[in-house]
Structure formats: structure tokens, C-alpha cells
TrEMBL record, chain A:
GO cellular component terms, A-Z: plasma membrane
Cross-referenced PANTHER family: D,D-DIPEPTIDE TRANSPORT ATP-BINDING PROTEIN DDPF-RELATED, TRANSPORT ATP-BINDING PROTEIN
Protein name: Peptide/nickel transport system ATP-binding protein
GO BP annotations, alphabetical order: peptide transport; transmembrane transport
Provenance organism: Afifella marina DSM 2698
UniProtKB/TrEMBL annotation, chain B:
SUPFAM superfamilies: P-loop containing nucleoside triphosphate hydrolases
Membrane-related topology note: Peripheral membrane protein
UniProt keyword annotations, A-Z: ATP-binding, Cell membrane, Membrane, Nucleotide-binding, Transport
Lineage: Bacteria, Pseudomonadati, Pseudomonadota, Alphaproteobacteria, Hyphomicrobiales
Native source organism of the sequence: Afifella marina DSM 2698
Protein name, per record: Peptide/nickel transport system ATP-binding protein
Assigned GO CC terms: plasma membrane
Family under the similarity heading: Belongs to the ABC transporter superfamily.
Length: 346, 333
């Protein structure tokens, strides 16, 4: 809205947020088993976890980008980084084209409000001693966003989230998971965000309530022109809601494509394995097929292609060389050596 | 052929202060034959776990089985004393929980836990028991089972712990396994591995299974029969191929329609309005009537259980082919 015509012409589809060569390391906190091994001298204290390893990504204004992967692959870390609440270790985040770490003062505050996160467990995000109305009013009041009556403002945002304002005097624990998630969504909407990072926001809900909240996200996107990063381990949910999908494995993006494309023509062997497990109702008894092996620990990721110990097509090169994320067709990217070899053979 | 398990009009209640007890399981009947897989589905709080615990005789006081009968191999479980029930649980019926630590003891090595139960229930020496335990670990896909026997539960990943719990459940080749959301907490690829191994082992041994889950997709691929639970009652039962292609009860239909992959991408999901009622405060008649698009005045009386071939349902306005007859019949009479 504030862009000049010149900018609009030059970059009609300017990304809202971009990650450039983003790496995030954490000083590792070993789990109990690892601590025992370390104290017994059976293992070296691990130095760092590479939660994210060279991520390049952009989210276009108005799109829903789905992020899929199994636990520990770095989805939440990526979500927190693009939302601007966690700095990358290396690389940078660009918010509307500007490096995020250079934003200061009002620009920084505006960016902070414009990107909001919705987590899996709303109880963790809601102050248990605050009434629903105060939870929703707190941030917009602090930032001077409310012009008229606070009560009307709160009611309006609760209604947007499908929560009956008549219950706004109650405390979070008096509500079911679905209702709490609505309060949480109202709280995020109340600061007029442009970008929502939904991190497993429907994962903990019952099937019928999950459908209601998914519908709410779809409606809000249309009504409020929102952009989403929708993080989920559930491919059915991501397939339903996303325009574009990113598949992650152990800190790296292994495939990225428009939603129809990735579900019709999955390229990466890991994506193919995941798609075989998409939750569909198929009333026909059949054997579950599964890829082999455990998800490796991010503390000790395999060399080369992270997926090689589980990949049915792994070969010598996969064990030493990291495959690059490269186009396989148009805006469909995949990180697998088989694609080079197929191209070379053709 | 007599059923392996027959549950008849089971009622399991939990007392409340100053009010009638909550019927967590309300007049539930079903039967299961040897080697069959029954998917027991419903949303949280519908009474799935309490049904499983009731069969196992593991309902914690002050909860209690207040009415009904459970027959296993023709024997009424109410007639068994505590010791006989314990023996039955060890050898003939086993349960696998969502949290494998319900089965595993954190301070004992896997070997100890497995051999103790073998020695308690079967005649064998320690070496034999150890070999059986090792083979059982290998069978559920645990690599280097010989070495893993001496590990403690915390040295396994979540998925591996669940495999150990399944290995323990299978140890005595029980005739019935009740699996209560055993893969819900696991990643999809690990979930698929475990279901696939479980499926193979159950088939090989002709084990009957009650697979409890909220996930219709899993049931559609894994089970022979399905029983749909809502607010303590079974609202629809029958062969998966019939129920999940042509449901009769509106709740079954609503659940199926809520699964994202059953819908057009990007469109709104066909959602069920409202929330599951609290079992402490149930609507009268068909408990679903406060959320049902097909409800009318008839639904405030409890619908009878209607049988149609192998399937049954409690709905006065059933969906599907036969529904038309029922509705026409209603209108005429
Ligand atoms: N604050 C933290 N401290 C240490 N390690 C962390 C922290 N946050 C995440 N990690 C590690 O980073 C990796 C990625 O975690 P996360 O982004 O939460 O993955 P996901 O959301 O895909 O499950 C994991 O190995 C996790 O243990
Ligand atoms: N220990 C308990 N004390 C009191 N009520 C209980 C207890 N366990 C279960 N219930 C009641 O039984 C109902 C069904 O519980 P449960 O079988 O665990 O549901 P599900 O497994 O389908 O999620 C719950 O809604 C709850 O009201
Ligand atoms: S690079 Fe090699 S190991 Fe990795 S996915 Fe491709 S074939 Fe498999
Ligand atoms: S009995 Fe009535 S309320 Fe219940 S499912 Fe059937 S139509 Fe709906
Ligand atoms: Mg996460
Ligand atoms: Mg349960």
C-alpha cells in the first residue's frame, strides 16, 4: 500500500518475507541418554545442532506456503525465524525487501506486529490468569491500535475468530482446545497482522474441531488478505490449505513446488515416501508400506544427502555430496542427485 | 462360530459429587471374531479408552462397570477372580497404549521386563525366556536385538519404545490385542512402519485386534470392521467397506467430511458445527442432535439400534440408499 507505482511495476510479486542462506545452530542440550553416555565417556559432548542449514525461501504476499516435515527437521525454528522472533545464526531474513536485522524503531515495531505466530498449544500462549477480553485487548492497547471503544474492538476480533463475545469475561481454562485456539487467533488478529505463521495450529484438535479451525483460517485469509506460513506434519491439512509446499528433512529443504505439482509429481524420494502416507479414507484393507529406518538425530546428521541412510535409491555420491536444491521443472525444485544423473543420461 | 469377544450392553460409569454418575460408556455392544481387526473410532472423550479398560478389567475406582457383560471365549469375565483376570491379561488379552511408558518400567532393563513376564506366565528357563525376548524385539523391527535387550527404555527413541511395548504385548501370542492410539504421537514414516509390522504380526498369528484411534484414514486401511463412538455410545458399526463408503449415521458422515484430503483443495471443509457435548451434560435422545443437519423432533428420543445385514446404526433418519425407504416409511406412517 505504501509502495510507489515504480516499485509495483518493477516487482509486482514482491515477496513479503524471504530467507537467504539461513542457518540456525543451537548449543545442544543433550538428553538423558546422551548425558549418561557422555558421563561414562562413551560419547563426546556434542557441540551444536544445525536446526537449519542453508535455507533459501520466499513467501509471496497473499500466498499460503505449507511447510511439511517430521519432528526435529526444523519447521518451528524456520517459523520463528521468518516471524522475526528468533535471529538466524547466519544468513538473513528480508521483510518486504529490507534486511530484518536492520529494521529499527517504528519500522521494526511495525514488522513485529505484522508477523504473528499461532502455536499448537494455545494454553501456552494464553495467560491463564487473564480474562479472554484482556488477552485480546492487551497488545493492541499497548501499541495504540484501538481508536474507539476497547470493548467493541475486542468483540469485533473475537467474532472474526468465531468466538462468542458473550463469554469474554471468562478465563482460558474454562474453554475447550478449539475455543482456546479461537481466542489465540483473535489475540493475533487484534494487532492487524499481515503474516501469520501457524505452527501445528490444528494438530492438537479433534477432527471435527480441526475442520472448523481450518475453515476459519481459509476465511480469514480471504477477508483480511493474509499471508500464511502453514507448518504441519499432516500432509492432508497442508495439501488442503496451501498454494505452495516446502518439504523439509533434517534442517534442509529437499523439495519445493506449487501444491498441485508436488502432489501430482513428487520428485524427491523422501517426498514420495511421505505422500504414500497421506491420510485418505480408502476403505480397502491393504498393507501399510513404509520407508525404512529411524529419523537420524540432528546432533549427528548423516554426511552428504541427509536422507541417504533411508533412501532406496542412495548411491556412492549421496554419501559424500550434499545435493543442491535445483529446478526440475519451472518452479518445482528438488534436492536429489538422481535428477542430475537423469539429465546427464538423457 | 462363537465370537472371541462379545461385549453386551456395557455401561461404565464415573461417580460425580452431587450428581448422577457420568456414563463414559453407555450401553455399548459389539463382538469380535478371531483374527478380525476392529477400528474403534471417535473424538476425544467419546469413551474409546474406557471401553478398552473395561474389557481389560482395568477401570480405576471409583469408576466401575455398572452394567452389561463381557464374554471372552464364551466365558463371562465378571465370573473371574482377580488372579484369573490377571492371568487372562498376561496371556490372552494384551493392551498397547499411546504412551509406551504405561507398559515399560523406566528403571528396568528391557531384558528384565520381558523375561519376568515370560517366566511368570509360561514354563521355561531363563535362557529360553531371553531367546524369546530377543526374537520378539527382532520381530517388531528393532535392530541388533541381542544388544538392545540390555538397554533401558530411555535409551530408545519414541518409535523404538513403542515397538518394545508391542513386542511385550505380543510375547505370549495373545488372542486379542487392544491398541489404544499406539501411533498417534509418532511421526508419519515411523507410524507407517509400526502399523505395517503390527499388521503383519497380527495376521500371521490370527490375533484379533481392537485398534482405537481418532484417525479414519488409518482405520480405512487397517480394519475389517469399524465402530463409531459418540458421547459414550456406539452410533454406527459394520464392515469398513460399507460404513466408510456409505455411512448411515450423520456423525460418521460428518467425521469423514472433516478429513481435509476428502475435500476439494482450498474450498471450505464440510464441517460439523458446534462442539462435542460433555458426557456430564448430554443432550437427550440422539446425543448428536444439537449438531446434526438432519435432526428434527424425532431425534430427541433415543433412536433404536437398527440392523441392516452386518451393519447397525442408531439414527432415525439414516443416510444412504436404505435411508430413502426409512424416511418414506416414516412419512407414510
Ligand atoms: N532452543 C533450542 N535449543 C536447542 N536445540 C533446539 C532449540 N530449538 C530447537 N532445537 C533443535 O533444533 C532441531 C529442530 O527443531 P524444531 O525447529 O523444533 O523442529 P520441528 O518443529 O520440525 O520439530 C531439533 O533437533 C531441536 O532439538
Ligand atoms: N478417571 C476418570 N474419572 C472420571 N471420568 C473419567 C475418567 N476417565 C474417563 N472419564 C470420562 O470418560 C469419558 C471418556 O473417556 P475416554 O474413554 O478416555 O475417552 P477417549 O479415549 O474416547 O478419548 C471422558 O469424557 C471422561 O468424562
Ligand atoms: S540424493 Fe541420493 S540419497 Fe538423497 S534422495 Fe537423492 S538418491 Fe536418495
Ligand atoms: S438420530 Fe437424528 S440427530 Fe441423530 S444422527 Fe440421526 S438424524 Fe441426526
Ligand atoms: Mg515444531
Ligand atoms: Mg483415549
Amino acid at each position: 500500500m505504501s509502495e510507489t507505482n515504480e516499485v509495483m511495476e518493477k516487482a509486482p510479486k514482491m515477496p513479503l518475507v524471504q530467507a537467504r542462506d539461513v542457518t540456525r545452530r543451537f548449543g545442544a542440550t543433550p538428553d538423558l541418554a546422551a548425558r549418561i553416555a557422555i558421563s561414562a565417556g562413551a560419547a563426546e559432548p556434542p557441540a551444536v545442532v544445525y536446526a537449519l542449514d542453508g535455507i533459501n525461501l520466499s513467501v509471496a504476499r497473499g500466498e499460503v506456503l505449507g511447510v511439511v516435515g517430521e519432528s526435529g527437521c526444523g519447521k518451528s525454528t524456520l517459523g520463528r525465524i521468518v516471524a522475526g522472533i528468533l535471529p538466524p545464526t547466519d544468513g538473513e531474513i528480508r521483510w518486504k525487501g529490507e534486511p530484518h536485522h536492520k529494521l529499527k524503531g517504528r519500522a521494526r515495531k511495525a514488522a513485529d506486529l505484522a508477523a504473528q505466530m499461532i502455536f499448537q498449544n494455545p494454553m501456552a500462549a494464553l495467560n491463564p490468569r487473564m480474562r479472554v477480553e484482556s488477552i485480546v485487548a492487551e497488545a493492541p492497547r499497548a501499541h495504540g491500535l484501538i481508536e474507539g471503544s476497547v470493548s467493541d474492538y475486542v468483540d469485533e476480533h473475537l467474532r472474526m475468530a468465531g468466538f462468542d463475545p458473550a463469554m469474554k469475561k471468562r478465563l482460558p481454562h474454562e474453554f475447550s482446545g478449539g475455543q482456546r485456539q479461537r481466542v489465540n487467533i483473535a489475540r493475533a488478529l487484534a494487532v492487524k497482522p499481515e503474516f501469520l505463521v501457524c505452527d501445528e495450529s490444528v494438530a492438537a484438535l479433534d477432527v471435527s474441531i480441526q475442520a472448523q479451525i481450518i475453515n476459519l483460517f481459509v476465511k480469514l485469509r480471504e477477508e483480511l488478505d493474509l499471508t500464511y506460513m502453514f507448518i504441519s506434519h499432516d500432509l492432508g491439512v497442508v495439501e488442503h490449505i496451501s498454494d505452495r509446499v516446502v518439504i523439509m528433512y533434517l534442517g534442509r529443504i529437499v523439495e519445493e513446488a506449487p501444491v498441485e505439482e508436488i502432489f501430482a509429481r513428487p520428485n524427491h524420494p523422501y517426498t514420495q515416501a511421505l505422500l504414500a502416507e497421506i491420510p485418505r479414507i480408502e476403505p480397502r484393507k491393504r498393507r501399510f508400506e513404509a520407508i525404512k529406518g529411524e529419523i537420524p538425530s540432528p546432533l549427528f546428521p548423516p554426511k552428504g544427502c541427509h536422507f541417504h541412510p533411508r533412501c532406496p535409491f542412495a548411491h556412492a555420491r549421496c554419501r559424500v555430496e550434499v545435493p543442491k536444491l535445483k529446478p526440475v521443472a519451472g518452479d518445482h525444485l528438488s534436492a536429489c542427485h538422481l535428477n542430475d544423473e537423469a539429465a546427464a543420461g538423457a | 462360530m462363537a465370537a472371541l469377544l462379545e461385549v453386551k450392553n456395557l455401561v461404565t460409569e464415573f461417580p460425580r459429587h452431587g450428581a448422577a454418575p457420568v456414563k463414559a460408556v453407555n450401553d455399548v455392544s459389539f463382538s469380535l471374531e478371531k483374527g478380525r481387526v476392529l477400528g474403534l473410532v471417535g473424538e476425544s472423550g467419546s469413551g474409546k479408552s474406557v471401553t478398552g479398560f473395561s474389557i481389560m478389567g482395568l477401570v480405576d475406582a471409583p469408576g466401575r462397570v455398572a452394567a452389561g457383560d463381557i464374554f471372552f471365549n464364551g466365558e463371562n469375565l465378571a465370573d473371574l477372580n482377580a488372579e484369573e483376570m490377571r492371568r487372562l491379561r498376561g496371556r490372552h488379552i494384551a493392551m498397547v497404549f499411546q504412551d509406551p511408558m504405561m507398559t515399560l518400567n523406566p528403571v528396568l532393563r528391557i531384558e528384565t521386563q520381558m523375561t519376568e513376564t515370560l517366566l511368570a506366565h509360561e514354563k521355561m528357563d531363563r535362557a529360553e525366556a531371553r531367546a524369546r525376548a530377543r526374537d520378539a524385539l527382532g520381530m517388531v523391527g528393532i535392530p541388533s536385538p541381542e544388544e538392545r535387550l540390555s538397554a533401558y527404555p530411555h535409551e530408545f527413541s519414541g518409535g523404538m519404545r513403542q515397538r518394545v511395548a508391542i513386542a511385550i504385548a505380543l510375547l505370549h501370542s495373545p488372542e486379542l490385542i487392544i491398541a489404544d492410539e499406539p501411533t498417534t504421537a509418532l511421526d508419519v514414516t515411523i507410524q507407517a512402519q509400526i502399523i505395517s509390522e503390527f499388521q503383519r504380526l497380527a495376521e500371521e498369528r490370527d490375533t484379533a485386534v481392537i485398534w482405537i484411534t481418532h484417525d479414519l484414514a488409518i482405520v480405512s486401511r487397517l480394519a475389517d470392521d469399524i465402530a463409531v463412538m459418540y458421547a459414550g455410545r456406539l452410533v454406527e458399526t459394520g464392515p469398513v467397506a460399507q460404513v466408510l463408503t456409505d455411512p448411515r449415521h450423520h456423525y460418521t458422515r460428518g467425521l469423514m467430511d472433516s478429513v481435509p484430503s476428502q475435500n476439494t483443495r482450498g474450498a471450505l471443509l464440510k464441517q460439523i458445527p458446534g462442539m462435542t457435548p460433555s458426557p456430564a451434560n448430554l443432550p437427550s435422545g440422539c446425543s448428536f442432535h444439537t449438531r446434526c443437519g438432519g435432526a428434527d423432533g424425532l431425534c430427541t428420543k433415543l433412536p433404536p439400534e437398527i440392523w441392516e445385514g452386518e451393519r447397525s446404526y442408531r439414527c432415525v433418519h439414516p443416510l444412504g440408499a436404505r435411508a430413502l425407504d426409512a424416511i418414506t416409511g416414516e412419512a407414510v406412517s
